[in-house]
Amino acid sequence: MLQYFEEQKSGTLPEKYRSLTSEQMEARIIEIKEQLGEKLFIPGHHYQRDDVIQFADAAGDSLQLAQLCAANEKAEHIIFCGVHFMAETADILTNDKQKVYLPDMRAGCSMADMADIFQTDRAWDALENLFGETIVPLTYVNSTAAIKAFVGKNGGATVTSSNAHAMVKWAFTQKERILFLPDQHLGRNTAYDIGIPLEEMAVWDPIHDQLEHEGAIEDIKVILWKGHCSVHENFTVQNTIDVRAEYPDMRIIVHPECSREVVALADDNGSTKYIIDKINDANPGSQWAIGTEMNLVNRLIQSHPDKHIISLNPSMCPCLTMNRIDLPHLLWSLESIVNEENVNQIIVDKKIAENAIIALERMLERV
């Protein structure tokens, strides 16, 4: 496993790509796409930069894109424009003849990195000592392949922001308690929505290997991993207060990766797809403050000139790791395929993939 991650870090962008103009890179990308035809598939996450997303064959959320990769069996080469856990999921779901690449191996996810397998194994041992075999683990798909495999091996499943409510309800049919990895905010918001009181939720701190909770241990129903999205945690209660003061008629819609306090003050919350659909279906002239990644918010602003749309946080920047995928890295990835170099290929260990698929399939069977 360690060797796999060392291999991931080996690719460094050749200097020649830094001297090319945007026009030169775009022309070459178009040329290679035409050359490879159906053998190539480029999925692009909604949070990608505009100059990259223009070349995506499909845009969407991470799991949706991974499923499209698996369904597109003609595609021998998949360049995943997203972050590493998304490319891992695509490699897990695709067949052995398909190769998945990440244009820049630095494109990680801070949330996914907040739960590594060593921390999780230690936490599981400690929690089983406290609660016995009364816990089932769930992991947000925004997690590493190793965490998905851990969950699959221990009777749990993956969840998305779209189906989290259904999956948490399912988990409670399996065991008395759940461990929710790695995003505490999605876990808290989801559990609260289905009727679990906040006082019945605890937080596991993986840095100090301890449970944070006030009250009786036996009352705990949900154990939230102390992780978060560095983008969505930057939307604050003060942001909502400021918007209400300046735009009294504006509706606030946020992603459930935002804190409980922000979600409670918003008019609506939901997955990236939910937010996009909500804006697409909104009446002309409607006003919206959106609490999610800035590349997507800017794209929605450009696509809906008939609506007044702003970011809930006016100082918000795009996701830094998503932004690592740029034209030079995309072109380099394409040319490496043409030159049969297979730079930055994502290869998930087969045993990890097998257990991760179990977690994914438990979810897909129920949604």
Describe the protein in words:
The chain is α/β, with parallel strands linked by helices and 367 residues long. It has 3 domains: 134 residues, Rossmann fold (3-Layer(aba) Sandwich); 118 residues, NadA-like (Rossmann fold, 3-Layer(aba) Sandwich), CATH 3.40.50; 80 residues, 3-Layer(aba) Sandwich (Rossmann fold), CATH 3.40.50.10800. The protein is built from 16 helices and 16 strands. The strands form 4 sheets. A 6-stranded mixed β-sheet has the order 7-6-8-11-9-10, sandwiched between helices. It is globular, with a radius of gyration of 21 Å. It starts with a helix and ends with a helix. The N terminus is likely disordered.
Topology:
Elements: H1 2-8, H2 22-36, E1 40-41, E2 43-45, H3 50-53, E3 58-60, H4 62-71, E4 77-79, H5 84-93, E5 99-101, H6 110-113, H7 117-131, E6 135-140, H8 145-153, E7 157-159, H9 164-174, E8 177-181, H10 184-193, E9 201-205, E10 210-212, E11 222-225, H11 237-246, E12 251-254, H12 260-265, E13 268-269, H13 272-281, E14 287-291, H14 294-303, E15 308-311, H15 327-338, E16 345-346, H16 350-364
Parallel strand pairs: 1-4, 2-3, 4-5, 6-7, 6-8, 8-11, 9-11, 12-13, 12-14, 14-15
Antiparallel strand pairs: 5-16, 9-10
Helix pairs in contact: 2-15, 4-5, 8-16
